Amino acid sequence: MAEVVIVPDEAAAGELVAGAVAELIVDRPDSVLGLATGSTPLSTYRALARRIEVDRLDVSRVRGFALDEYVGLPAGHPEGYRAVITREVVEPLGLRPELVHVPNGAPETIRIAAAEYERAIDAAGGVDLQILGIGRTGHIGFNEPGSSLASLTRVKTLTEETRADNARFFDSPDEVPMHCITQGIGTILRARHLVLLAFGDAKAQAVADAVEGPVSASRPGSAIQLHPHATVVVDEAAASRL
Ligand code: GLP
């Protein structure tokens, strides 16, 4: 059963999770962070950037692995997750870019990209703390409903609902790629600590399904119930159906 922490707002969630990440970095300066994209983790990244500055944390050996990437966006596209992770995480936190990995969504090498990503995570010794958001469909990473709970990194087709949700980041909805490469649910479950964040009414059902629903591939977030150390940090609205 995941531990659920209800906080007043996103800023408080960010402070709480940033505190846990900062402690981890102090304990283990070469720790491996699992990084999510989307709007949900942004308050955590901002709070962590402040902590790093104020506490003068040494992050020169901190490593990171993003959960997912779109397939087929032009290299350097500002909404590609490589660019997002650089802008929202690597630069503000002062991480070394070569230590922060994002799956490679280039179509030419996509056949080998998934297995390579799994190998890179293993070679790093696994993820210490995985930050997760959750989609309205219940997806974690880009593991849409129907994803095997044992799945590894692979190419997936995005649901229309997720494409519509993410259209806000693009000039037109047609520009949202159809495919992605994402860590699997089995990959995510190998992280030593999962921290799932969710805010607002729109996430309330996905949170209830993840925390209290049956564990099922049709509700990918419910996989966190299989994990021995999962923490869910939500505001009142996202907790309203618990
Ligand atoms: C995105 C990402 C997920 C993220 C989710 C929620 O598309 N691939 O990793 O958790 O959807 O996004 P948001 O935090 O913007 O609601």
TrEMBL record:
This is Glucosamine-6-phosphate deaminase. InterPro entries: Glc/Gal-6P_isomerase, Glucosamine6P_isomerase, NagB/RpiA_transferase-like. It comes from Agromyces aurantiacus. It catalyses: alpha-D-glucosamine 6-phosphate + H2O = beta-D-fructose 6-phosphate + NH4(+). Coiled coil: none annotated. Residues 12-226 form the Glucosamine/galactosamine-6-phosphate isomerase domain. The active site is at D68, H139, E144. Gene3D superfamilies: 3.40.50.1360. Allosterically activated by N-acetylglucosamine 6-phosphate (GlcNAc6P). Pathway: Amino-sugar metabolism; N-acetylneuraminate degradation; D-fructose 6-phosphate from N-acetylneuraminate: step 5/5. The gene is nagB.
